[in-house]
Write a structure and sequence with these properties.
CATH architecture of the largest domain: 3-Layer(aba) Sandwich
Structural class: alpha/beta
Radius of gyration: 18 Å
CATH superfamily of the largest domain: HAD superfamily/HAD-like
Helix content: 25-40%
Largest sheet: 8 strands, mixed
Shape: globular
Number of domains: 2
Length: about 270
């Protein structure tokens, strides 16, 4: 099969246990970047992806951020889809009695309600610093400027997060994707987007000679399932969820064992 584009998830797939890109991976990507489009695709905000693009030497290529909610090419917005204000407001109300940490994201803005264990953990993971403002104040500000959130991220102790998840599932099952990368997290995104839809934007707008069959993709988590299922060659790392492995065409070692680099070396004889 003729591959033309390589789509790579970041957390749990590309990054090692230190949340960094290994030298081996950098070497592989730099060897391939002249002949293949290399696209990072993640639930992260753009700012938390660009330093990884720099490490890999692929800043000229697009990024698919927020699970497909924001697609950028050289800082130009190709597509963006936010959570509507009514749903945003209802999510905040649903959290009043639980008082869980809700981080709010729009493009390169990240607002956390306060500095706490959860915000510090995200800073360590993503190397991005938030601004601190109450969720309600952010809602009012963003309404004024018509800035819908690309992502709402809930973080907290597992029993409360589970309670919130059940509540959101009942209230917003038709409006929100609810991703649980860990039992202490819920990532909320608009129902109409996915990593696959983000890739389709790229094929419609800038890579018109590329089809889904020409894409090689790597992933590990629930938000990768559709992408891994539909591309030409979907590869699951060893630490991937069973749902990802069930639809994968091929498998490689875990993210901490350089799985992506090892697979690329084998596939492209590097």
């Amino acid at each position: 099969m003729m591959y033309k584009l390589i789509a790579i998830d970041i957390d749990g797939t590309l990054l090692d246990k230190n949340k960094s890109v290994s030298q081996n991976t950098i070497k592989c990507i730099r060897a391939l970047k002249q002949d293949y489009k290399i696209v990072l695709i993640s639930a992260r905000m753009p700012k938390a992806m660009r330093h990884i693009q720099s490490d890999l030497g692929i800043k000229d290529y697009p990024i698919v951020a927020y699970n497909g909610g924001l697609v950028l090419h050289q800082n130009k917005i190709l597509s963006h889809t936010g959570i509507d204000f009514q749903t945003f407001s209802e999510v905040l109300k649903a959290n009043h009695d639980l008082n869980l940490h809700l981080s709010l994201y729009h493009n390169d803005e990240w607002f956390a309600p306060q500095e706490d264990h959860w915000s510090r953990r995200e800073v360590a993971n993503t190397k991005v610093e938030p601004e601190f403002k109450s969720n309600e104040a952010v809602l009012e500000d963003w309404k004024m400027y018509n800035k819908e959130p690309h992502k709402i991220m809930c973080m907290g102790d597992e029993p409360k997060v589970e309670q919130f998840y059940q509540r959101l599932s009942q209230q917003h099952n038709d409006k929100l994707h609810l991703y649980r990368s860990k039992p202490t997290y819920i990532e909320m995104a608009p129902m109409q987007i996915s990593k696959l839809s983000g890739l389709q934007v790229l094929l419609q707008k800038i890579y018109k000679d590329i089809k889904l069959d020409n894409i090689l993709a790597y992933g590990d988590n629930y938000n990768d399932v559709e992408m891994i299922d539909k591309v030409g060659l979907g590869v699951a790392v060893d630490n991937a969820k069973d749902e990802v492995k069930a639809v994968a065409d091929d498998f490689t070692q875990s993210n901490i064992e350089n799985g992506v680099a090892n697979h690329l070396q084998k596939l492209f004889n590097l």
